[in-house]
Every structure is written in structure tokens, then in C-alpha cells.
Amino acid sequence: MSAQTCELCEVTGGELLWQDARCRVIRVADAHYPAFCRVVWRRHVAEMTDLDMTDRAHLMAVVWATERVLRDAMQPDKINLASFGNMVPHVHWHVIPRFSDDRHFPQSVWGTPQRDGLAHAGPASSVLTAALEQILGPATDAVPGR
Amino acid sequence: MSAQTCELCEVTGGELLWQDARCRVIRVADAHYPAFCRVVWRRHVAEMTDLDMTDRAHLMAVVWATERVLRDAMQPDKINLASFGNMVPHVHWHVIPRFSDDRHFPQSVWGTPQRDGLAHAGPASSVLTAALEQILGPATDAVPGR
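Above: the input entities. Below: the C-alpha cells describing the complete assembly.
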């Protein structure tokens, strides 16, 4: 897949919670996991080891901030982190608060459903944004061209 | 689950490729994914944000080294990274070289099998160890008590 046809190059991919010039945090529209977030690197790069050390550290700092904010807001039983990119080979991290009564627990959300499961709503997106800004600084409005 | 009954506190969990005082890299015995590796934090901690910044950076440096070594050795179509801990809430990272003709691609290895799939053998473990040592330095033989 080239950058020209990559959906993460083309669209935000969810509700924008925070962004800077290098990456963005989005909230995914997932009925079973309403607080499922993703951290998406802006530039079209396939693997973490395609990024230099500085960019890698920056991206992970945003992943840790997202984990921290979701833990503080929701006290999940577990946080799940994953970066696959098998379908969209553009670096992005899944950050998912998990609960023992959710649809797949203790399986991954990509596994076999275990029950109908409770969808834990989580706080309003404005609350998550405010908490992210407290850790990461203000979101950038105007983002330089890709 | 307490540290007293945690399997990652009790057993290595695979073939040991590299270790230092803080973490270890193991090769998992997975028939479909013979080069599936895990990076296991030594201390019993559930979440990445339970580690301080220095430990977090160290653990991820070992994850990136494992990704680098697997990429160089196997040229996979994609690397998959994940840290769940739903069943064993002790920080560990899955590092999985993926190929378009493997059992689950483009699904995660926790998803529905797509075909019988080819098991890509990967190099001998001694080769992976040597490559890890080149990036991370010599493995530690004697590990302090947990």
C-alpha cells in the first residue's frame, strides 16, 4: 500500500482528541469499546524501527500519556497496547482500556467474543483532551503539510 | 493474580535469547510462528505506566532491538507488537514477524485463522542472540534475585 492510498494518510480515523506536528490521538467509534483510542504517526512509515530514536520516544510518550489518561479516568482492569499495521501499514498504536466484563476479556479484542459484554463508556472526549493536554501540552491546531 | 502465582515470575516462558538484570527476550514455542519472541520485564508490574520513565525506555529499547533483529534476519511483511497482560498481568511484549502467507495474516495472531499458513522458521536462536548482543551488549548470566 502506498502513502497515496493509505487511509491513515487520508482521514483522521476517529474523533480527534489531541495532535501535534508529529502524531495524533483519536477516539475510535467502537460500539463495544467506546474509549478505544489510537495514536497515529502523521508520516507514512510502516515500522517503529523505521523511525529514528527521537521520533520513537516521542510517539511512545504520547502512547504512555494516553494510557495514563485512560487509567486515571476509567480504572480499567487492564490496558491493552498493540501496533500491528497488517491491513494499514502506517504506524499506529491501539490503546484500549479493558474490563473483566467486556466483550472479549481475557481475550484480546481481536479474539473470539466471550459474552455480549458491557461497553464501558468512559468520559466525554473533552475530558480526555484536557487530561492529555495537561501531560503533553496544548494540542496544535494548524498542522504542517504531510 | 499475585506475583506469588504469576507464571512469568516463576518460569522463563520460552527459550532464553538474551537477558539483563531488568528484562529478558525469549523465543516462544509456537508451531505456527516459530520466530515469535517476547520481551518480559523481570519485576512483577502490570502496566507500562507502572514503570518509571527510565525503565520504560529500557524495556522499549529491548523491544526495538528485537524488532530490528527479526526484521534483519527474516524480512517479514510486517512486525506486530502487543502488550496485553489480560491473562498474565505482568508486563511483557509480543514481537511477531508476520508474513502474508502465515496462518492469520492480515488478522492478528489472536484472530481467526485465514488458512493453514506457512510457519516461517527464522534463524537459529544462537543467531538471534548474537544479533541482540550486538545491539544491546552481552547478555547477563547471573541475574539478581527477584
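Note for the figure: Residues 53-74 of chain A form the longest helix (22 residues).
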